[in-house]
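User: Teach me something about this protein's shape.
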Amino acid sequence: MLIAVVGVNHRTAPVEVREKLSFTGPTMKGALKRLNSYPVIESCVILSTCNRTEIYAASLEMDEGLNAIWDFLSRWSGVDISEIKNYTYCHTLYDTIRHIFRVASGLDSMLLGETQILGQVKTAYQLAAEYGSTNRVMNTLFQLALTVGKRVRNETGIDQNAVSISYAAVELARQHLGNLAGRSVLIIGAGKMSELTAKHLVDNGVSGVIVSNRSFDRAEVLAAQFGGRAVKFNELYKHMETADIVISCTAAARCVVRYEEMERVMNLRRGKKIFMIDIAMPRDIETEVGNLEGISLYDIDDLKNVVDQNLAERKRAANKAEKIIEEELEEFMKWHGTQFVVPTISALKKWGDGIKQKELHRALNRLGELSEHDRKVVCSLANSIVNQILHTPVAQLKKYALTVEGHLYTEILQNLFDLEVPGQKPKKIFVPENEEEPIA
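Assistant: First, the predicted structure itself:
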């Protein structure tokens, strides 16, 4: 059983190409059914996210299997095969296994070490299994990929350091305030960055969300997303008197939070600390505000420094992750290689046993009456000869099964002995009419 993957991601194709090759939840069942309808495809899984689409397939014929995948993608998307090949990448055999391990571990993502991809791999596999498009090899591959992804995160902590501006803000807030559960946040501005930061804060336990924006309607829309409330822009400082966290990201040309007003706010807070993050450019909060006692103020450059440091940590964790992947790959190679050659070894032993039984029957008939002892000696001799003849090819095949060329040695053995192996068909050897020796 040969495994391959054909895919497209954020590095190989622009979004207008990726969206043509994407699969949504409602279409997944039909897509898997159509891909499985190709006779050469034994099993398959389709992984489709906003940044990648990958077709994993197991086939008895590698070239035919890859052609089937490209044909499927072309027919499904309406994009010409030649164009698809220009944007897609292809991995076969053990490179496929290494690739899915890296994907599940977050090493192949736009954001190094992201956690979301592990759940997406799990969902893709579960859907394929539910729709009956997987077999033993594909089941083992994806179950192990999920295990590898979890092991990488547990042993390296690759997903523990924030590498986005919005999440870095949350990490800093947690460092200064401890547990964020039950904390309140005042968001100044209703843009995308404010929304992302608010989402991360809420996901980490912040419960009270207040949004203030010059456009009150936009403030109401953002507040509604988090079960919060919108307040008038001229009431800004009033709500700072009770907020634990302030996130400011407006498009204002001048500062909207001033030193004199914040000095008054801090007097009313009576020593209660406040954490402030200014993500705007130009800045929303006067730099002198950070000098006030009880205020921790960070701007966009501070957050970028945190991101850079954390990204360096993730890169170090990625090096550890690659070693884990190679360990797991070696184990899977052993299992997969053994699975592939076992039917061939069984067929070879059956072939040898067939010859032994045939020749034993003929020899015993010619020898006539023999004592029980003599019959046992003859049978033992026949068993010993066949076992010794088959021992070396069987042992060598098991050894070669652990290499990337294992399937080639298996096919050669099947051809040499003309073996019939259930579920496998060896490649035919072309023999020209004017040649005495076969040419592969």
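Now, about its shape. The mean pLDDT is 88. Residues 189 and 250 are 5 Å apart (CA to CA). If you'd like, I can walk through any region in more detail.
User: That's plenty for now, thanks!
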